[in-house]
Each structure stands twice: as C-alpha cells, then as structure tokens.
Design goal:
Elements (H helix, E strand, L loop, with lengths): L4 H6 L5 H4 L19 E2 L6 H23 L2 H23 L10 H10 L7 E7 L5 H8 L21 E5 L7 E5 L13 H4 L7 E6 L5 H12 L4 E6 L2 H13 L10 H32 L7 E3 L2 H8 L10 H18 L2
Parallel strand pairs: 2-4, 2-5, 5-6, 6-7
Antiparallel strand pairs: 1-3, 3-4
Length: about 350
C-alpha cells in the first residue's frame, strides 16, 4: 500500500479524460486551474445574530399586538413567554451553544457558487483549530514546500482569514483543496463554524488535530455525520515535532542534542523510538475516547507530519513516516470512488 499510495491520490488525474470530460462552459475557471489560489470570502458571521434578533423582534411585536387586542392577563402571559425565550436564547449564545439547523437549497446553491464548486472535481476542505498546521498540510499534500510561492501561507499564528482555494498542481488532477480558517478563533466561534462557512458542500473534510482533540473538532465531526455527502478523516498533525519534544523531555532539563557525545546521541535515538511507540498508542486511544464521549462513530486517526507526506508523495523513504501512505491511499480511494459514482 505504501508504494502505491502517492499514485492513488496523484493519479486520480488519470480518471480524467476518458471517464469525465470537462466542459469549459461548466468550469469557467478551467483555463486558470493551476495558478495562484483565489480567495473565497467568508459569509458574514453576523447572520446568526441577526436571525436571533429578528426572532426577538417578532416576539415583541406579537406581545404589543396582544396588548392591544387581548385582556391584560393574556398580554402579561405573552410578555412573560417572550422574555423567557429571550433570556434562554441569550444564555445559549453566551455558553457557545447554537441550535443545529439544516441549510436550505438556496444556502447550498449560494455556497457552491461562493467556493466555485464543480461536480467534475472533488473538493476537500482542511479544517481544525488555529495553529494545527492546516496550511503546511495542504502544501505537503500538493507536493509543495512551505516556501513555494504558490503554496498556502504558514506561520505561528492563524494565517488564514478567508477560505482559500488551492487547485492540485498535478497535471489533469481533479482535486481542489481548501484551507479553512481555524475553528474557535475570535473571528470564527465554534458554534458558527460548520454552517456559516458552508462546509456541508464539500465532498471530503479533513479534521486536523494538534495537541489534543478539541470540542470544535468533535463538533465538526458531529456535523459531518449529519450530511451523508460529506466524508470525514481525522489527521493528527506535526507528529515528528511531538515525538521529538517527548524524547527531549525524557532526557532531562538542559539536554541539547547538538552538544552531546555519540553515546548520548544513541541514547536519545533509543528514547525517541520508545516515545514514538507511546505517542502512537496514546494518540489513537485519546481520539477514540473523545469520539466515544460524544457518541460519534469510531474513526481511524491518521498520524502524519509534513516532511513524511512530501517524501511519500515523491516515493521516497522517511524515518518520520507513520500513517502518511495510508492517509494518501484512503483519501485517494475516496476521491476515486466519488468521481466514478458521479457523487
């Protein structure tokens, strides 16, 4: 599987001409499918607030009408119910709880137009918390380094303020990647994330998990289960950094690999091997425990790092590799299956 994985995801392009001809009229952006990514504006995050405000306004209007037409007792009861609803709504919003709602057909059409969705392509969104490494991941799966001028911007702070579209650069590829702003930021609160950003229109969502599984990660996975058209993957990012940090901690305070003898370096490598095994085991257990707590379906977590992803795509070996080949194979099979079925 490892040797064929890059071919699976890259050669989705191979399905191309014979099975799914692309009509330029259906894809107005086809002539510029591989240049620098275009930016997609996020829908207004004030929509939910205005919706609630509208409901409160309607309730108050009904109260005023009741005062004019009904006995005083009825008006008082209507006013009490309206006030209770107002307080309950404000409490839910302050607690970060947002009632689930299904998008309308108009919402779906609007968001597909917003993200340049085309049924001849597979649209994959990479989501997760701020700083989880979404941009680096997208660069790696596109076969690019972080300093490539056509790559996603990376940094120690949240670099993505808009949903950004990145066509896959491989010739004839039918994959389009989307870098989505981090969930749980001030700009995109958890309870607005899935619906307001229109994530329900994507064919596949990759939930990138960093140090721990957050409520926002689980909320996205829960939402994905409500939409049969959306396939979700869990990816644990930056595995090499975490394993290296664990090994350093075991070596004790003040340890510096650059300032050690051969024996100490060998000891560090042994410690790193042991911590790698522990990291993989604990990561899988932790993800499954969090899924169980929210009554979510069991799901495999793919443990990866960007360097090993790049190496796997180039059919090279990497000592950092864990689940990179399997992830590329699983995503590639998902893409292949959906393109063949026309879904």
């Amino acid at each position: 599987m490892a040797s064929s994985a890059p071919a699976v995801i890259a050669a989705v392009s191979g399905i191309g001409s014979a099975m799914l001809p692309i009509a330029p009229v259906m894809l107005p952006f086809a002539p510029t499918i591989f240049p620098v990514a275009s930016l997609i504006a996020i829908p207004s995050l004030a929509v939910g607030w205005w919706t609630q405000k509208s409901k409160r306004g309607k309730a108050e209007k009904e109260v005023n009408e009741t005062k004019e037409k009904a006995p005083t007792a009825d008006a008082a009861e209507a006013l009490r119910r309206a006030e209770e609803e107002r307080l309950a709504t404000e409490r839910r919003w302050l607690e970060g709880v947002r009632p689930e709602c299904r998008p309308s057909e108009e919402d779906i059409v609007r968001m597909k137009a917003e993200y340049l969705y085309n049924p001849n392509f597979l649209h994959l969104a990479v989501v997760g918390s701020s700083g989880a490494g979404k941009s680096s991941f997208i660069n790696a799966v596109r076969g690019l380094s972080n300093n490539d001028p056509t790559g996603a911007r990376t940094g120690i702070v949240e670099m993505t303020n808009e949903v950004t579209r990145y066509p896959d650069p491989r010739p004839n590829s039918r994959i389009v990647w989307y870098d989505v702003p981090g969930a749980g930021t001030l700009n995109v609160p958890d309870w607005q994330y899935f619906n307001d950003l229109g994530l329900y229109i994507f064919d596949c969502i990759i939930v990138l998990v960093d140090n721990r599984v957050l409520d926002s990660d689980l909320a996205i996975l829960h939402a994905c289960e409500q939409f049969r058209n959306v396939e979700a993957f869990i990816v644990r990012s930056k595995s090499d950094q975490h394993i290296n940090n664990m090994a350093h901690d075991k070596m004790g305070p003040g340890f510096d690999l650059a300032d050690t003898d051969d024996e100490t370096r060998a000891q560090f490598q042994q410690m790193k091997s042991e911590e790698r095994t522990r990291f993989i085991k604990e990561t899988r257990e932790n993800v499954q425990m969090n899924l169980d707590k929210k009554n979510l379906s069991p799901k495999k977590v793919h443990i990866v790092c960007k360097d090993a992803l790049l190496a796997t795509l180039r059919n090279a070996r990497s000592s950092k590799a864990i689940d990179e080949a399997e992830l590329l194979s699983d995503v590639g099979e998902c893409v292949l299956r959906r393109l063949q079925s026309g879904c």
